[in-house]
Amino acid sequence: MRYVSTRGKVDSMPFKDAVMMGLANDGGLLLPEFFPVFSLGEIKDLAKLSYTDLAFKIMSLYCEGLPRQQLKEIIDRSYRTFSHPEITPIVKKDELFILELFHGPTLAFKDLALQFLGNLFEDLVKERRAKMNILGATSGDTGSAAIYGLKNKNGINIFILHPKGKVSPIQKLQMTTVTDPNVFNLAIRGTFDDGQSIVKQVFNDLEFKARHSLASINSINWARLLAQTVYYFYAWGKVYHETSAEEVCFSVPTGNFGDIFAGYIAKQMGLPICQLVIATNENNILTRFVLQGDYSLDTVRETYSPSMDIQVASNFERYLYFVYDQNPEKVRNAMDQLKEKQSISFNPKEIEKISQDFTSVSVNQDETLATIRTFYQKTGYILDPHTAVGIKAGQAAVPQDVPLICLATAHPAKFSQAVNLAIGKDPEKPPCLQGIEKKEERCVEIDAQTEAIKAFVSEHAL
Ligand SMILES: *Cc1c(COP(=O)(O)O)cnc(C)c1O
């Protein structure tokens, strides 16, 4: 299995090189040449496996060049840090299946991918006797998950940009209280989109990228999506055992189009998904895209679900590649159009295709709090605001007679302010958050400018 760029201007490459490259050197995103397809019978067999065995079965299809034993060992190491024996358990509440993705060390679904990527990077650096400097931008959860995946690893420094004052207090503390010498937290005076755009610009400076052996932990890295594909299969299996339903729907709180794209991959691999719901908050560019073919950038609004306060969804380009029948020239034109006009328009045939792949609902601020409140009153279960967006959207979009699986992307204690507004009390803090306010912090405030970030990285790089 080799990897190609959505912009078609780099030679195809094996898995390890794709992981190291992160953003493709032509500015595009890397994708496998094809998606292997399972039959329904095979999928039912996969449903009998444990999470880590399932992860091995799926991921080994894409990791050619990585010895099987090593892949198995990396997977085991990565999911051992989870506090639940099932890794991603499903709970049933109010006729919904909630896929809890927050049992990792930083309490959000990003841990599923970043524990894996961190261990993979560690092995690759050791094997190549190399060093690595990781640069990433976060809207809150990627940063802490990456830091926990990489702190204290030999030969690796990690630099994380977060938008100053725009992440929740707990999200910030989860990053800044990790004071290992290889971890650098940068609070930028700007938005997440600024951070993401800076990171892309730095990666597009190929000389700088090579000089510092820069690597990416953002969802532009293929390995993250691969790791996330696993839990769609896992969830399907659990629901199949319980209901015998062969078709399910998923609702996915979406910001950067990473998690939902992992669902798209699962569907391409044969998983019977009748609807993939893109759930957005008031930053609804993806909803406008799906419903009207209108992909035009707006300004970012701050919401109760800050990890989704994004306009420029970096993984969107991966999906565009399929909208354009895997034609890199069309992708390049579209991305040029986006740069020039701040928007991409789609013709009726393309809109028709998009609507077969996804549906989408945007959920406003009041609806988010109301969903947390009514769900709590009905079931006693506390939703985090991102999960609430997914549940509200899923209920609006999916017919009642099909099992609906809602991805619970974060533990409510990460967003206790919003939860408190909704139900008048704080969610209980899991052990890993207790006393976090009292820990020492380390963080540097910096302008949201590419040159300032480059200077900082140069100075502190390995
Ligand atoms: C990152 C994140 C999302 C959005 O996921 P994408 O892959 O960026 O679409 C949703 N909820 C939470 C809690 C997150 O951390």
Bound small molecules, which ones? pyridoxal-5'-phosphate
Q: What is the terminal separation in angstroms?
A: 32 Å
Radius of gyration: 20 Å
Main β-sheet description: 6 strands, mixed
Q: Give the total of beta strands.
A: 15
Q: What is the average per-residue confidence, as pLDDT, rounded to a whole number?
A: 95
Count of helical stretches:
19
- Percentage of residues in DSSP E strands: 15-25%
**Helix content range of the residues, please?**
40-55%
Bulk shape: globular
Order of strands, main sheet, comes to 3-4-14-9-10-13
Residue runs with pLDDT of under 50 for 5 or more positions: none
What would you call the structural class? alpha/beta
Describe how the helices and strands are arranged.
Layout: E1 3-5, H1 15-21, E2 30-32, H2 40-46, H3 51-59, H4 68-79, E3 90-93, E4 96-100, H5 110-127, E5 132-137, H6 141-150, E6 156-163, H7 169-176, E7 183-189, H8 192-204, H9 206-211, E8 214-216, H10 222-243, E9 248-253, H11 258-268, E10 273-280, H12 285-292, E11 294-296, H13 316-323, H14 328-341, E12 343-345, H15 348-357, E13 359-362, H16 365-379, H17 385-397, E14 404-408, H18 416-423, E15 444-447, H19 450-460
Parallel strand pairs: 4-14, 5-6, 5-8, 6-7, 7-15, 9-10, 9-14, 10-13
Antiparallel strand pairs: 1-2, 3-4, 11-12
The protein binds pyridoxal-5'-phosphate (PLP).
